[in-house]
Amino acid sequence: MRVVLFSEINSKLGSPFLSLLSGHPMAELIALVTSPPGRRCSYFVHDERQVDLEAQARGLGVPVLRPRRVNEPEAVAALRALRADYFIVGNFQQILSPELLAVPAVTCVNFHPSPLPRYAGLAPFYWMVRHGERDGAVTAIEMAPGPDTGAIIRQNPMPLTGAETALELRTAQERENSLMLLELIPQLRDRSFSTVAQDLSRRTYFGRPGAGDYQLDFTRDAVTVERAVRAGYRHPGAHTARPDGSRLVILSAEPGSTRLALDEPGTVRRCSDGWHVAAADAWLRVLTVEHDGAEVPAEALGGVLADHAVLGREHSSAR
Question: Which positions fall inside the Formyl transferase N-terminal domain (predicted)?
Answer without folding.
Answer: 2-181
